[in-house]
Design brief:
The structure holds two protein chains of two kinds. By secondary structure, chain A is of the alpha+beta class. Chain A is about 30% helix and about 30% strand. In chain A, helix 2 crosses helix 3 and helix 8 packs antiparallel against helix 9. Chain B is mainly α. The longest helix of chain B is centred in the middle third of the chain and has 19 residues. The chains are: A alpha+beta, B mainly alpha. At the A-B interface, helix 10 of A face helix 2 of B.
């Protein structure tokens, strides 16, 4: 009845009978989340830490095997840090800066990411997805012990939903039979194939790419490669039309072979066939063991609307991108970051329901940006036409000798969070000479502050951030309190804070949202402007 | 916005033209494509100005349509 579709790396939420299953009438919960992957569990953590009761339903009992998402970007780690689980990810993850690009049998160039100084977290880490998920679940367990009202229910498969104006009814199958639940709000975090999307008959439009990639996670036994990213276009060893080699924790390496569209999946996944590709690439002397393998194909798609009344979609369920540039799980975490405070305020009656429409507005904008970037990378890596292939190889040829062609080489652009330029929660930019990177709509860049970091001090509330400007300690507008964080040149030994937040200005006041995006900025504390901005950021205007 | 130069700008047109054709002479079909692509990329980077480049792309496409 409940069959596992994949094997587990960690069995973290085994089935347990809930008293809801013995209730004569369906129990109503404020929030139910479909999907116990990283997006579903992180959403539960965000809401649970706000004291909002939340139930996560998953048809498995834990986290699936395989490196999968592998690259976790700075913004994701910063969001995890706000939830209290960024540090273990950083401690476990692999940080790399050097990349090498090969074409056929030649190294055409190498690059160093030269990370910008003054951030708590690196540009990104390589980490097997199961660890990423486990650190979030570990944090949920810790939060539960401290009283956070979060429930993770394994082997609870949602088979049907009825969506009403003010709630959703869910029919659930468990190993001990079916039961019914009700939810004021339902979050669809049930992945790219989203059964919920299907149950609701919602469309998912976009572009399918006719190629497949074979992934192998291998553990090296008698050798090590450097901690670098190696990417081959049309490699001489012929194991794929492109090949990517990445280091992961636990002496494990991730290799992605582009193997074409018309492949016999079962045949390709036989160990001897995977080893044939690996041996051609690594040479005869390298000994390794297979940890995990899979074949993936991908699409660039998104839903027309992420919000359907009381049902809200997040992560791969709402949008799917190609893996180049690591914009899948990373953009999903930004969905969580965006949705958490908005849903929290609406449930607590602090903001109108329409605040949730801005979730779609902002995150669909982000999804479009991610789809654009990952489509461009995909078109470079897997050219779709003969002339596209000619230009791609011309770029690679020129890149070997000419620096100008190297920025054209696109094997995936680093995932960065988007700036919500011109969207409806933003107020004016009234900071003359302020840096472009902190304009309204931007995610706050981190900076060293005294012996800590700025983002660690922002937390998850509205903040009035002042630089060399007076302001009261708190400001309350229609039930929402913004806390002041007052900083001065004395907190800014490195000058990085001034560079990122003052620019040419001598003082500044920022209104910062709970998801650490800038709502508005001014050159001084203008109470009526900030009150108006706070209302606007909560969709009250 | 800079304008694409469409008035005569090549000092010795006959020599330029002869050199261009000569550069292609020994090439087979595949090599012709790669050579053209490399040439376009080199010249485009030299120009750099996105306005000029998009005017050139537009103009090249328009001429092509007229010929059809």
């Amino acid at each position: 009845m409940l069959q596992d579709r994949y094997s587990l790396a960690f069995r973290l939420y085994p089935y347990e009978r809930s008293s809801d299953q013995d209730s004569a009438t369906p129990v109503r919960h404020p929030v139910v989340i479909m999907g116990g992957g990283p997006i579903g569990v992180a959403t539960a953590l965000d809401l649970g830490l706000q004291g909002i009761p939340v139930v996560v339903l998953d048809d498995h009992e834990g986290i699936g095997m395989g490196s999968r998402a592998i690259c976790f970007a700075k913004r994701t780690l910063e969001i995890a840090d706000r939830y209290g689980c960024g540090q273990p990810m950083l401690d476990k993850g692999v940080v790399w800066n050097l990349g090498k690009v090969f074409h056929d049998d030649r190294k055409i160039f190498e690059f160093n990411l030269l990370p910008e100084e003054g951030h708590k977290y690196p540009a990104f880490i390589n980490l097997q997805q199961p660890y990423f998920e486990k650190f979030i679940v570990d944090r949920v367990r810790e939060a539960q012990a401290a009283g956070a009202p979060i429930e993770l229910r394994g082997k609870n498969r949602v088979d049907a939903v009825q969506v009403h104006d003010d709630h959703v009814t869910l029919e659930i199958t468990t190993p001990e039979g079916p039961y019914t639940l009700e939810a004021d709000w339902l979050i669809g975090a049930d992945g790219a194939a989203s059964p919920l999307r299907g149950m609701m008959g919602l469309n998912f439009e976009g572009r399918v790419f006719k190629d497949s990639f074979l992934i192998a996670d291998i553990r090296m036994l008698n050798t090590q490669f450097p901690t670098e990213r190696w990417f081959w276009f049309e490699p001489h060893f012929k194991s794929g039309a492109s090949t990517l080699l990445h280091k992961q924790p636990d002496d494990t390496w991730r290799i992605d072979f582009q193997i074409g569209w018309d492949v016999d999946r079962k045949e390709e996944l036989k160990e001897e066939n995977i080893r044939r590709r690996l041996d051609a690439m690594l040479g005869p002397d390298v000994e390794y063991e297979m940890v995990w393998s899979s074949i993936y194909t991908f699409q660039c798609k998104r839903m027309d609307q992420f919000r359907h009344g009381r049902v809200i979609f997040a992560g791969d369920a709402a949008h799917q991108v190609s893996p180049f540039g690591a914009r899948g799980a990373n953009s999903g975490l930004q969905d969580v970051d965006n949705l958490g405070w908005k849903l929290g305020m609406v449930i607590k009656g602090q903001a109108p329901d329409r605040l949730l429409d801005s979730y779609h507005e902002e995150r669909a904008y982000g999804a479009d940006e991610n789809i654009l970037n990952s489509t461009r990378a995909t078109d470079f890596i897997t050219p779709k036409t003969a002339i596209s292939h000619v230009f791609r190889n011309a770029v690679l040829d020129l890149a070997e000798r000419h620096a100008f062609a190297r920025p054209l080489v696109n094997s995936g652009r680093l995932s960065v969070p988007c700036t919500y330029d011109g969207l409806s929660l933003n107020s004016e930019d009234a900071l003359t000479g302020g840096p472009a990177r902190t304009r309204p709509g931007s995610p706050c860049p981190d900076a060293p502050v005294a012996d800590s970091y700025l983002l660690s001090q922002l937390g998850g509330d509205f903040i009035v951030l002042t630089f060399d400007a007076d302001a009261p300690d708190t400001l309350t507008e229609d039930g929402i309190t913004a806390r002041r964080l007052g900083l001065s040149a004395l907190d800014d030994a490195t000058g990085v804070l001034a560079e990122r937040y003052l620019g040419q200005a001598t003082s500044a006041v920022y209104l910062i949202r709970p998801d650490q995006h800038v709502a508005g900025r001014w050159d001084r504390y203008d109470e009526s402007a900030i009150r108006a901005a706070l209302r606007k950021a909560c969709a009250k205007e | 916005m800079a304008d694409l130069i469409t008035r005569p700008n090549i000092p010795d047109p006959d020599r330029f033209y002869a050199d261009l054709i000569k550069a292609y002479e020994a090439l087979d079909e595949d090599a012709i494509s790669s050579f053209s692509a490399r040439l376009i990329l080199l010249l485009t980077n030299h120009i750099g100005d996105p306005d000029v480049i998009s005017q050139a792309v537009e103009e090249a496409a328009r001429t092509h349509l007229v010929e059809e």
